[in-house]
Every structure is written in structure tokens, then in C-alpha cells.
Fold this protein.
Amino acid sequence: MPIRVHIKDFQSIKDSVVIIDGLTVITGQNNSGKTAVMRAILGLFTNAPAGPLVRHGSAFLMVELTFDDGTVVRWEKGWEKPNQKGGTVNRYHINGMLLSGVGRGAPPEVAALGVCPIQAASDRVWPQVAQQFDGTLFLVNRPGSAVAEALSDVEKVGKLTRALKLSEKDRRASNNELTVRRKDLEGLKDDVQKYTGLEDVRTQVATLTIQESQVDAFEFQLAQVMELRLSLTSAQEQVDTLKDFDPRVVPDQKCAVRVRRHSKLIEAVVGLRDRRNQAGGEVERLASFDPSVVPLSKASQEIQGLSITLAESLALRVRLENASGEVSRLQGRMPTIPDGGAAESLRKELNQALELQRRVKEALEQVEQVEAEAKTIDTEYGDAKQEVFDLLGDLGECPTCGTVHEPGQHVGGA
């Protein structure tokens, strides 16, 4: 049952670790620290005074025992600062539990570990720790009365003997188990070597186990990337097309905006020019037309003549109707009046002739309006053409539409 002893800043020992496993012999020259090891172990279980024990130049000592069952006891004693300055330090750590502000003697939690003295007659004897200068081993150097009292309780001695046998049996079983586990450990180490270099695979697998929402987000991002890739390919083709293009001939942003605006104005001017040309053709075709001398057809002439007769007839009819009673009274009969159906037919022909005359007048008014608009368009077109001339200068190609033109003259212009 090995016990690990860690001693630090205790008398001549600065920092040392001793493993006690069965019969353990510590040898060395005088004043090399052999006795200090015994004193350190005994001091842990007695909470010995720190004055003569703390290493010179250190603040406090530390002794730690680790038993084979995993129990860890650490004892720290001295001062907060070297040379016995500052507050005092007197504390224990038992399996991570801190016992601070300990008074004189070891606390009960330390005595409960079983390393403690027993009373033999009027003497106190340490069964586990023998003093270096006490003479011989446990009880051998004691008076007969102390030996008799210590050994008088045969039952306790028997229990101690049985406990020792059981502990020895457990120790052997633990050693056998430890041997098997060490072999298993070596085998597992060999198996682990087969998977050396696969740490990144575990990280990659953990990275791939993502949520479904993240997968959807990645798919959406992938679709965007594919769309951007198509845009990039198209842009690259345009770049290849314009690789010989000199960017110095491209006007600035403000100038480009003005060019686009005037390009639209040029398109509108071209449309108005076509309308002007069309209207001009109509004007030329009707230049010699005199609406006042438009000949009327024979039927129209008859209608025009008859319209006066019809109007007079209607007026006479009204007068006749008003006087019909008087005439009937005087003459006893109505005068003969023209047929109403023939008069209505003449009225329709007269209205058609008047409608034709109105349409001719409206056409002449539209021609005058188109001529006025054409003059305005010619003025705007001239201004736009001059501004395009100023913008294009000596360029051989329009930076907006890409068409080739003569210096200062756009192909789309007049």
C-alpha cells in the first residue's frame, strides 16, 4: 500500500517527494534531510510548532500525504510572509475541504484517519511512526508495564492481526488488478495509436451535425452564390469585350447622366421630327387647298337651294297652321303643303354637307398647330444637337449606346 509524501520548505528540504511502499529505506549523508522526512510526517499528524521547522527564507511549510485509497491530507503552517512576518498560517486540506484557523494539536478530521498515538500506562506511543532517537522499535524500548498494558487487550490485538491480514489480501488483489489493468492500458495505447491523426475527423463530423435551419440557410446562400457566379461570368464576358476600352474617354457620372437625359430627348426629338415630316407632307398636299372654293356636288347644290325653300316652307307652314282656323273659316279648306318625307331627306343631305365643311376647317386648324409644334421641336432639337456635340467632342464611339459616329455628330441624330 504505497503512500506518497510531498514535502516543501520543511527545514533543509526545499521540495521533495518520497514514495513509501512496504519496507522503505532512506539513506544519505548527515544533515541531508533524512530525519526531516520523519519529522514532517509526524508533524502533519501532531500539528507541530512551525518556528524551528519552516525553511529559512520561506513563509510557511507544506506537507502532503496521498494514501492508496485516494485520501489526500495537506498541512500548511507558518506565516504569510518570509522571516515570520505577516499573519500566521495554520490550516489543513482534507480531500479538498479546507480547515482554517486550526488551534493547537491536529483537528479531529486528521485523527479520524487512524494515524494517532495510543495510551500505554502513563506513556503515549505512536504505533505507525517511530522516533529516530527513541532507541528501538515500537514498545521494545518501553517499560514492562507499558508493554503489558498495550498487549493486555488480546481481543484488540486479534482484531489488529485480522485487519492486517485482510489489508494484505486486499493489497495483493489490488496489485494483481493493477497488473492486469496496466496490461489493458498498454493494449489500449496500441489501439489508440491506430487512430492517431483522426482528431480532425472528429471535429469535422461534429461540424457537419448542424441544425436543419442551418442547412436551409446554407442552401439559400448557395443559391445566392450560384446567382452571383452567373453574374460574375456575364460581367467577365463584358470585361473581356471591353478589355481594349480606354476608361479615360468615359465622361464623369454627372456628364453621363446628362448624356442619358439628352439621348432620351434625342429619341423624343426624332419622333417629333417624323411627326413634323408627316404633318409637313400633309401641309404641302393641302397648301393649295381653299376651303372657301370647295365645290359642292349637284345634290349638295340642290340641298343648299332647297334648304332655303324648306326653311321658308316651314315658316310658312307655321304661319299657315296658326291661320288655318281663319283660312278654314274663310275658304273651307287647307292649302297644299310639300311632302314631309322629301323635306326630311333634303335636311339629311344638307347636314352631311355641313359636317364635311366642319371637318375641313378642323383639319386646317390641326395643320397650323402641327406647324407651330414643329418650329418648337426644331429649336429644341438644335439645342440638344449642340449639347450632344459638346459632350461627344472628338470621341469616335458613344459611351452610352456604343454606336460609331462622326466627330461631334451622333448617328441617331438628324
